[in-house]
From TrEMBL:
Lineage of origin: Eukaryota, Fungi, Dikarya, Basidiomycota, Agaricomycotina
Source organism superkingdom: Eukaryota
Name the record gives this protein: F-box domain-containing protein
SUPFAM superfamilies: RNI-like (SSF52047)
Record-linked InterPro entries: LRR_dom_sf
Gene3D superfamilies on file: Ribonuclease Inhibitor
Length: 504
């Protein structure tokens, strides 16, 4: 008679869920020793779990299919697949086929190839010889090599021709080094455009971006686009303008060189992106203003702007008014890289953004130190009562900031939804204990250092934020001590509540 366990394990969905938990672990791999895992599409794949899945696939016929599905779903290289056909490493570190492809080996190859859904090849030092791809292509007779491939991270090379898949949704061309061959690269970009019927996510770096741009208008199904450009070779801003014709885009990231020159003829304004929700821009101010004009009709919810050495006057007078169209939609704003003159000691830089009352996330990271005082931070807290994540963090810091731990009370009182906070505070001297509150802040970061008695500092912080999950700073030892004391206070408080409940 079958037990309940046996009946449960005969359900394919149950087996797949069990093996998925065992296979591609979605949590952070911080507890795994280096070299015992690889990361593919954000999933940390432990090597020991792969061996376990292989054993499960061999031990039971009912386990075979679901175990192999999970084992081959995320791959960091094509080499394990080609080794089924007899792949060997040559003297020049290239891989080649050492024997003919037999029917039995080919059947195993296809069995595994159709299970691969995510391929991330960012180690271009392990090169499979082009002849291997040609021999495999002869056996495929026009069929796709990886018919179920959903996402691909691969160097911009001719081998991309062999990885075409009707199910491909995400393509990342930022992996590895690339030696440009103009004619070949143009052909690759043409192939990508022709094979883009289902493509929704495209990422490309400098050289691949340059060859993708001429065909970018043919990517009618793209939902997310990320393009990076370097200072060489020179870039014509008029060509980049083609990006703004993609009506299907929901997320757009444009990283332009700070040496990009203003064109002699005006850039045309294209306002076709009506569905754009997230926009990230980096480059000279003239192009950022142009891009914001093109996106004026889009209902932006998230905006990131990273300028290059622009003066504070230009930043305020030219950029702030352009954010007006999104006063009712913008939820996340990130500003960084620009270099205002000298130390930031007043709110004139960020005051204009107080009009964005619906902001939930604000990340401010200039290239100079921030030194706001307690009164300044009180104004910030009152301006954004709906704020959930706030980061005021210059790329450099001063040893003795004017703001103190007392500034935390402002955010505990005026920002009830705040969950993550990063500030520059001086914590060497703690004033009288604050009023005890029940604010649900989860993450607190204090710069530059946590100085002073860790117990006193932890008691002060815990009185304001009893639900903290982490306390971090640049001073690792003091940070650990303060966080440990906060955890102890929380544990004592929980035990006290438990005892009271037991009494009643």
């Amino acid at each position: 008679m079958e037990s309940a366990t046996h009946r449960a394990l005969q359900i394919p969905e149950v087996l797949h869920e069990i093996f998925s938990k065992l296979g591609a672990q979605q949590n952070s791999p911080v507890n795994l020793p280096f070299g015992t895992y690889e990361t593919v599409n954000g999933a940390a794949i432990a090597h020991e779990h792969q061996h376990t899945l292989g054993a499960l696939a061999r031990c039971c016929r009912g386990f075979s299919d679901p175990a192999l599905d999970v084992l081959w779903e995320y791959m960091g290289s094509l080499i394990p697949l080609f080794k089924v056909l007899g792949l060997k490493r040559g003297d020049n570190d290239n891989y080649y086929l050492s024997r003919s492809i037999t029917p039995s080996r080919w059947a195993r190859f296809e069995l595994y190839a159709r299970r691969m859904r995510h391929l991330k090849c960012d180690n271009y030092g392990e090169e499979v010889d082009d002849v291997v791809f040609l021999r495999v292509a002869q056996c495929l007779q026009g069929r796709p090599l990886l018919p179920s491939l959903h996402s691909l991270t691969f160097p911009f090379s001719a081998q991309l021709f062999h990885l075409a898949s009707p199910s491909l949704k995400r393509l990342d061309l930022s992996a590895g080094d690339h030696q440009s061959e103009k004619d070949g690269d143009a052909a690759i970009s043409e192939w990508i455009a022709e094979s883009s019927d289902q493509l929704e996510d495209l990422t490309a770096t400098t050289e691949s971006s340059l060859f993708i741009l001429p065909t970018i208008g043919r990517f009618n199904t793209l939902r997310r686009l990320e393009l990076w450009f370097d200072s060489w070779p020179p870039l014509d801003p008029h060509i980049v303008n083609k990006v703004f014709t993609l009506r299907s885009l929901v997320e757009l990231t444009l990283i332009l060189s700070k040496t990009l020159k203003r064109p002699s003829t005006p850039l045309s304004i294209v306002t076709d992106m009506h569905d754009l929700r997230k926009l990230v821009l980096s480059g000279p101010l003239f192009y950022i203003r142009h891009a914001l004009t093109c996106a004026a009709r889009a209902p932006l919810a998230s905006l990131g702007i990273y300028l290059h050495k622009d003066h504070i006057g230009d930043f305020k007078n030219s950029l702030n008014p352009m954010l007006f169209p999104w006063r009712g939609t913008l939820r996340s704003l990130s500003l960084g890289e620009f270099e205002p003159a000298g130390l930031l000691q007043d709110l004139t830089v960020i005051e204009p953004f107080f009009e964005l009352r619906k902001l939930r996330e604000f990340f401010f990271n200039p290239a100079v130190p921030i030194d706001f005082c307690d009164k300044d931070l009180l104004v910030v807290a009152k301006a954004w009562p709906e704020m959930e994540m706030l980061k005021l963090d210059g790329k450099s810091s001063i040893d003795t900031p004017r703001a103190t731990l007392a500034a935390l009370q402002s955010f505990a009182l005026w920002c009830p939804k705040l969950r993550s906070l990063c500030l520059h505070l001086g914590v060497a001297h703690v004033l009288s204990s604050p009023r005890v509150m029940s604010h649900r802040l989860h993450h607190l970061t204090i710069y530059p250092n946590i100085d002073g008695d860790p117990v006193v500092i932890a008691r002060y912080i815990d009185a304001l934020f009893p639900s903290l999950l982490s306390v971090t700073s640049q001073h690792r030892y003091k940070e650990t001590e303060v966080e440990r004391m906060v955890k102890q206070f929380q544990m004592v408080r929980d035990e006290d509540v438990w005892r009271r409940n037991m009494v009643h």
